[in-house]
Specification:
By secondary structure, this protein is α+β, with helices and mostly antiparallel strands. It has one domain. It is 63% helix and 10% strand. It has a four-stranded mixed beta sheet with strand order 2-1-3-4. A hairpin with a 5-residue loop joins strand 1 and strand 2. Helix 1 packs across helix 3, helix 2 crosses helix 3 and helix 3 packs across helix 4. The longest helix is centred in the middle third of the chain and has 25 residues. The radius of gyration is 14 Å and the shape is globular.
């Protein structure tokens, strides 16, 4: 895996977790962070293969039929939803808005070759 991609992802995960920690006690934060970090290499592998992509709502989607990817995406999206809800409570916003903002950040930072969904719902390869 590319060191730049790994560093960027660690920064993004840390930023999400720091946002939660800054003023909000969120039960399970450490557990979620550990699960997300553990899943990261496999997620990146599937992204590099074009099996999964980042949608415009801040969640992963399976783009090519793969049972392992489907299970992984389900677990990751469940944790992302919990993070987005916690951030939304802290910022007095909706979880949907938090997810959409996160999607824009992911799209900006995504490496070439990853599949992304634009605001209109169309998938493209960066």
């Amino acid at each position: 895996m590319n060191n730049t991609v790994l560093k960027m992802t660690k920064i993004v995960i840390c930023a999400m977790m720091l946002t939660l920690a800054a003023g909000t006690v969120f039960a399970g934060t450490r557990e979620i962070k550990a699960r997300m970090k553990a899943r990261f290499p496999q997620i990146e592998n599937f992204k590099n293969q074009g099996v999964i992509g980042e949608n415009n709502k801040g969640y992963l989607e399976v783009l090519k039929t793969n049972a392992d990817a489907k299970k992984l995406v389900g677990s990751e999206n469940k944790d992302r939803e919990a993070v987005y809800r916690a951030i939304a409570r802290q910022q007095k916003a909706s979880a949907e808005l938090v997810g959409k903002r996160r999607a824009m950040m992911i799209a900006r930072r995504a490496p070439k070759g990853h599949m992304l969904q634009n605001a209109k719902g169309k998938w493209y390869k960066k």
